[in-house]
């Protein structure tokens, strides 16, 4: 049977390297299981970094492995839960947290040394049978990407999209758009029902949001505002996301997602620990977006919403640690 990825050639490079990675991970995992090694193969780079260099911060690990900070943070959290790592203060800077081996990891490291040596020897035997040296080719490819990313190479050769969406902060001239977009949303889904809170928020957004430490964002397409969203300070650690509205003819194009990510990033920058929103379960597209972003449905802290139309209270915990 013809391999479709081979037919695609270089266009499938990312998919083929991932497929190869997945295959190697599966086979190494089978080796570990047969040898009684309780270690997820995907932990190997971080595990060996700490094994060789000792405790490191998440930031240090991300830099040493050339992996994103969120990816390393997520991995360390998993390894902590599995009893492989624990957090401790940096020996020379108490403000910084590092992750270090537990007794469980020390034992695994001792068990795994001969297994790693055999895996390395066998992989090198395979590569010696190849016509083209794989690791050297990967090194060269990574160096070329470091000089100029694939993103830069492609985007600079493409014409600028005419319908590009930009996210902008509050400007007084956009106040009318904020009101009208949300009124249109209420008319579309809830027969224009306005609560007292809606009236205050929509007609006096400067006082309701901005004056209390909140933000309002707008999605602009060309000369037109096509979407908006508000972020309101609830308390010192929590912000509410509300009043997301996108023009009906622009819905389904990812504008709501861009607005949501902007709000979440802003809340993280402000060191908030959580954002929440209230919505209606009938808004299936919005519900799917919130759940995809990681929001969880939880009981309303006041028992019921101040908005009669809202039947779902959703929260998202934020990773705001900046000293690890």
Automatic annotation (TrEMBL):
Residues 4-150 form the HTH marR-type domain. Coiled coil: none annotated. Keywords: Acyltransferase, DNA-binding, Transcription, Transcription regulation, Transferase. InterPro entries: Acyl_CoA_acyltransferase, Bact_Acetyltransf, GNAT_dom, HTH_MarR-typ, Tscrpt_reg_MarR-type_CS, WH-like_DNA-bd_sf, WH_DNA-bd_sf. Pfam families: Acetyltransf_1, MarR. It comes from Motilimonas cestriensis. Residues 165-319 form the N-acetyltransferase domain. The keyword Transcription applies. This is Bifunctional helix-turn-helix transcriptional regulator/GNAT family N-acetyltransferase.
């Amino acid at each position: 049977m013809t391999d479709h990825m081979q037919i695609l050639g270089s266009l499938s490079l990312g998919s083929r390297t991932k497929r190869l990675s997945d295959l190697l991970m599966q086979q190494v995992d089978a080796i570990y299981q047969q040898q009684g090694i309780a270690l997820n193969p995907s932990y190997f780079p971080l595990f060996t970094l700490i094994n060789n260099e000792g405790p490191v911060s998440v930031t240090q690990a991300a830099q040493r492995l050339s992996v994103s900070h969120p990816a390393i943070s997520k991995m360390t959290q998993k390894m902590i839960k599995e009893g492989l790592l624990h957090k401790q203060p940096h020996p020379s800077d108490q403000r910084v947290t590092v992750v270090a081996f537990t007794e469980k990891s020390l034992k695994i490291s001792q068990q795994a040394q001969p297994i790693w040596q055999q895996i390395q020897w066998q992989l090198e035997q395979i590569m010696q049978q190849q016509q083209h040296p794989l690791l050297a080719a990967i090194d060269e490819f990574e160096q070329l990407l470091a000089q100029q990313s694939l993103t830069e190479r492609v985007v600079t050769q493409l014409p600028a999209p005419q319908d590009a969406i930009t996210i902008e902060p509050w400007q007084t001239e956009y106040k009318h758009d904020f009101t009208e977009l949300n009124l249109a949303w209420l008319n579309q889904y809830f027969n224009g029902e306005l609560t007292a809170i809606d009236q205050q928020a929509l007609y006096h957004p400067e006082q309701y949001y901005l004056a209390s430490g909140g933000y309002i964002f707008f999605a602009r397409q060309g000369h037109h505002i096509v979407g908006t969203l508000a972020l309101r300070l609830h308390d010192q650690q929590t912000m509410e996301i509300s009043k997301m509205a996108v023009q009906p003819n622009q819905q389904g194009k990812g504008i709501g997602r861009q607005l949501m990510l902007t709000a979440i990033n802003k809340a993280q920058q402000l060191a908030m620990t959580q954002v929440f929103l209230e919505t209606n379960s009938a808004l299936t597209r919005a519900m799917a977006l919130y759940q995809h972003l990681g929001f969880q449905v939880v009981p309303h802290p006041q028992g019921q919403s101040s908005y009669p139309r809202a039947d779902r209270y959703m929260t998202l915990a934020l990773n705001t640690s900046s000293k690890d």
